[in-house]
């Protein structure tokens, strides 16, 4: 039976490909498919057993969605999607990910120059074939060339942004775990290590009852466009967006050594294998064993295998052979942060922001439900076109929060704003008005293409402003889609220490900004970080788990994260910056 997650993912793919068919991400059909996907995703009861008439009663689903869902449930396929997949294969869809190349431009390039992939486009740019096309010109051609370069997309080693890979893996894990005979399913490889781009998705399913039925189901899911390998131990498929998924089925007795092996990284595995060899042992996916006798030493849990090698368990986010093995041997692995350590969220939007979707009451209820004890409400400030709030709206919100506070006795609510950093580092409003806020996040939302020295100065100027407690999403990048501003990272980190300004670890999977690389550069310094969700609705408050994992990947120590501090200590930190 097709799961809701699978249906939602099919409808999302339908929306993405319809953008190309309609030449616009805003067409009526695109919006309808997106809305339907979301409605299916949040619906708790399985839709597959329902009749079309029953499906139309589900909030957000109409007759046309119901028909598609029935077709999917009955046949396992969607004819409309199959034909779109044929017209717009993944290599072509990837062209539209390049900033400056929207669906219309991509279709025009296909029509006029036969461009079917990023590689084709690269070649055309090299031949200066774009500059004479209507509406493009030499400047656009240069920008496209630069984007391809900086995003590192195209070619054989094409990688998928983690946000897309994570969604596919989560849907698949949920569906696998719903299968009879599957005890659990866990993502492995670069996804478990939380790399920001993913080559292919690796999943292990644990089962004692053999793999036949599992592999059969896996290779015939409706999201599958190609089966590239079928076997009892391992099968590989290509799903909609052109991503490969490898599934391995194991027994529980082998799970520890198998998950270590398939989590990698390869470099980390090689180091561990060497440690095993030094002791006269062999380490592989089946276990740690004695090379002479063949006796099994450990295999059931990762902890067992690491312990047998004389090591503490090493968190997957660190397994890149960039010092974690040495640190484990020396007993100096960093004390990393967990979601349970977080006491507050410091970047939260309400429907006062043009792009916010839930009321302040709904957001505060959800914050309390997550067990947090402080929160900063940070709607967009006035300089942000369309989405920003005026002074009067901000004052009204502040009065509203003062009224609401009695309803939330165990929650400290800070009235903040997400300020916009102008090209010279100035921010919204004026000094007096800014002093009325309890908290300020300042972010770059415009002018992404200024030279690195200008951007660096821009951010440092904002850090020096007493109204700014934290710099939001440091570079403004969207992984795989927009490169973000160029910065002298070491200068910015030094200024953060100097000014007492915090740096946000933005939890949106498409952002993860500051990046793990930047975070790692701050190890050993006194930079203070905050892990914030930048939630635009209540569901996005759960994204803090991604911010946490990015912090772990960046070796950020728990005590460096201000929102792991108790309320009093946290408030003192906020006040000292605003008093400067
Ligand atoms: P990716 O897919 O490029 O984002 O990166 P990974 O790390 O997921 O790489 P993948 O999918 O090729 O392999 C998954 C894991 O399997 C990898 O992290 C470590 C393990 N592995 C694969 N091939 C080898 C190998 O030749 N030697 C060792 N020691 N481990 C391997
Ligand atoms: Ca992989
Ligand atoms: Ca793989
Ligand atoms: Zn925001």
Key words describing this protein structure:
globular; binds calcium ion; DNA polymerase, domain 1; binds zinc ion; alpha/beta; single chain; 17 strands; Beta Polymerase, domain 2; binds 2'-deoxyguanosine-5'-triphosphate; five-stranded mixed β-sheet; seven-stranded parallel β-sheet; 14% strand
Strand-helix topology:
Layout: H1 4-22, H2 28-42, H3 52-56, H4 63-75, H5 79-87, H6 90-95, H7 103-113, H8 118-126, H9 137-151, E1 160-161, H10 162-177, E2 184-188, H11 189-193, E3 197-198, E4 201-206, H12 212-220, E5 224-229, E6 234-239, E7 243-250, H13 255-263, H14 266-278, E8 281-284, E9 287-290, E10 296-298, H15 302-308, H16 324-330, E11 344-348, H17 360-369, E12 374-380, H18 391-404, E13 412-420, H19 431-435, E14 439-443, H20 452-464, E15 470-471, H21 489-499, E16 502-506, H22 516-521, E17 529-532, H23 544-553, H24 567-578
Parallel strand pairs: 4-7, 11-12, 12-13, 13-14, 14-15, 15-16, 16-17
Antiparallel strand pairs: 1-3, 2-4, 5-6, 6-7, 8-9, 9-10
Helix pairs in contact: 1-2, 1-5, 8-9, 13-15, 20-21
The structure holds 2'-deoxyguanosine-5'-triphosphate, calcium ion (2 copies) and zinc ion.
CATH homology superfamily of the largest domain: Metal-dependent hydrolases
Question: What proportion of the residues form beta strands (DSSP E)?
Answer: 5-15%
CATH architectural name of the largest domain = Alpha-Beta Barrel
What kind of sheet is the major sheet? 7 strands, parallel
Mean pLDDT: 94
Lateral arrangement of strands in the main beta sheet: 11-12-13-14-15-16-17
Task: List the bound ligands.
Answer: 2'-deoxyguanosine-5'-triphosphate, calcium ion, zinc ion
Helix proportion range:
40-55%
Task: Give the count of structural domains.
Answer: 5
Poorly predicted runs of 5 or more residues: none
- SS field, number of helical segments: 24
Q: Which outline best applies?
A: globular
CATH topology of the largest domain: TIM Barrel
The level-1 CATH class of the largest domain: Alpha Beta
Q: What structural category characterises the helix and strand content?
A: alpha/beta
Radius of gyration: 25 Å
């Amino acid at each position: 039976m097709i799961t809701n997650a699978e249906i939602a993912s099919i409808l999302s793919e339908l929306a993405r490909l319809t953008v190309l068919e309609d030449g616009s991400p805003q067409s009526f059909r695109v919006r309808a498919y997106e809305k339907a996907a979301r409605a299916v995703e949040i619906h708790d009861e399985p839709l597959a057993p329902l009749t079309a008439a029953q499906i139309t009663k589900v909030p957000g689903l109409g007759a046309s969605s119901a028909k598609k869902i029935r077709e999917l449930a009955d046949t396992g396929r969607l004819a409309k999607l199959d034909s779109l997949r044929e017209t717009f294969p993944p290599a072509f869809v990837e062209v539209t990910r390049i900033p400056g190349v929207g669906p219309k431009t991509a279709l025009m390039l296909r029509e006029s120059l036969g461009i079917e992939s990023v590689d084709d486009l690269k070649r055309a740019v090299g031949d200066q074939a774009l500059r004479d096309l209507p509406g493009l010109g030499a400047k656009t051609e240069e920008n496209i060339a630069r984007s391809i370069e900086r995003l590192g997309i195209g070619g054989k080693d094409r990688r998928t942004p983690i946000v897309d890979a994570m969604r596919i893996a989560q849907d698949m894990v949920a569906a696998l775990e719903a299968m009879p005979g599957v005890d659990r399913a866990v993502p492995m490889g670069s996804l478990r290590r939380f790399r920001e781009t993913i080559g292919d998705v690796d999943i292990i399913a644990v089962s004692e009852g053999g793999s036949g039925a599992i592999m059969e189901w896996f290779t015939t899911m409706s999201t599958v466009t190609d089966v590239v390998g079928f076997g009892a131990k391992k099968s590989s498929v290509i799903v909609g967006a052109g991503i490969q998924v490898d599934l391995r089925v194991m027994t529980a007795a082998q799970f520890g050594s198998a998950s270590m092996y398939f989590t990698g990284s390869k470099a980390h595995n090689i180091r561990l294998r060497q440690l095993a060899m030094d002791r006269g042992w062999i380490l592989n996916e089946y276990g740690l064993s004695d090379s002479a006798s063949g006796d099994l030493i450990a295999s059931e849990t990762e902890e067992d295998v690491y312990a047998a090698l004389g090591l503490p368990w090493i968190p997957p986010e660190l397994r890149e052979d960039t010092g974690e093995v040495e640190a484990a041997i020396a007993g100096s692995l960093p004390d990393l942060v967990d979601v349970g350590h977080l006491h507050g969220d410091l970047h939260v939007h309400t429907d006062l922001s043009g792009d916010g979707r839930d009321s302040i009451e709904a957001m505060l209820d959800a914050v309390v439900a997550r067990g947090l004890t402080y929160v900063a409400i940070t709607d967009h400030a006035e300089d942000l076109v369309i989405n920003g709030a005026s002074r009067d709206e901000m004052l009204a919100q502040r009065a509203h929060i003062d009224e609401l506070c009695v309803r939330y006795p165990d929650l400290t609510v800070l009235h903040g704003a997400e300020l916009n950093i102008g090209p010279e580092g100035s921010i919204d409003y004026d000094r007096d008005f800014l002093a009325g806020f309890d908290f300020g996040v300042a972010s770059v939302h415009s002018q992404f293409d200024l030279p690195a020295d200008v951007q660096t100065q821009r951010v440092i100027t904002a850090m020096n402003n007493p109204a700014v407690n934290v710099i939001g999403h440091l570079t403004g990048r969207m992984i795989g889609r927009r490169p973000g501003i160029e910065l002298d990272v070491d200068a910015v980190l030094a200024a953060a220490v100097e000014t007492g300004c915090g740096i946000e670890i933005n939890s949106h999977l498409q952002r993860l900004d500051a990046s793990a690389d930047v975070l790692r550069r701050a190890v050993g310094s006194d930079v203070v970080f905050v892990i914030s969700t930048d939630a635009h609705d209540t569901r996005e408050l759960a994204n803090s788990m991604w911010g946490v994992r990015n912090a772990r990947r960046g070796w950020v120590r728990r005590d460096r994260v201000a929102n792991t501090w108790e309320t009093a200590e946290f408030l003192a930190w906020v006040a000292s910056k605003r008093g400067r």
